[in-house]
Amino acid sequence: MAVLLTLAVLIATAAAYPSGAPDDACSTLDPVSHGPSTATGNAPYALTFSSSTYQPNQVITVQLQGSKFKGFLIVGRKSDGSSTDPIGYFINPTSDSQLICLNSTTGNGITHTDNSVKAGLTFSWKAPSSSVGDVVFHYTIVRGGAPSKDMNPADYYKDEQSAAIKPASTILLYKLKASRVSKMHKPRYNKADFMIQPNQVRKSSLPSIKIQ
Questions:
Q1: CA atoms within 13 A on the CB side of 128
Q2: Residues 67 and 44 sit within 8 Å (Cβ to Cβ)
Q3: Which of 59, 84, 122, 196 has the fewest CB atoms nearer than 10 Å to its CB?
Q4: CA-CA distance, 88 to 106, in Å (whole number)?
């Protein structure tokens, strides 16, 4: 009986989360059923964005790029680390993705729908209705032995982080301040500063004229 129970646990662990990460992973991004990660080196993945700034309710394209993989979980968060609550809403998931963290009132996340081998996915993320400061995307990628179809649940990179997306209002305010500082320190000249007065011309500087 103990042998059968152990076998059942091993099968469950090997299967991991083939149909997507569970909701309780939204705050930790930890695929606990996969066991300790065996992946080494820097994660061969990155998130890129169609805009480095956001305005309220702006829809931004998010691309997951890099090596092939099988599973993923992505959530946006405040960059100051004050909360693990998701920020902003992923919308219009494709057949390769599904929404997660739906119990949150500040945003959601997105995860895979199956454990097939994937390469590069694109998502749509809607910014919050008002500025919350810089937003950083946290993501866990399960390479899972890809490109091989054989499953290796322990082959994953946990809680990687993207570059920050800044509120457009912050960038505009910074530019306005910089413009004002530039104007304050800009030298001012009068037209008279560039005019040579007659008494400033020395006789020695005038050409001599001989009268025949």
A1: 21
A2: yes
A3: 196
A4: 6
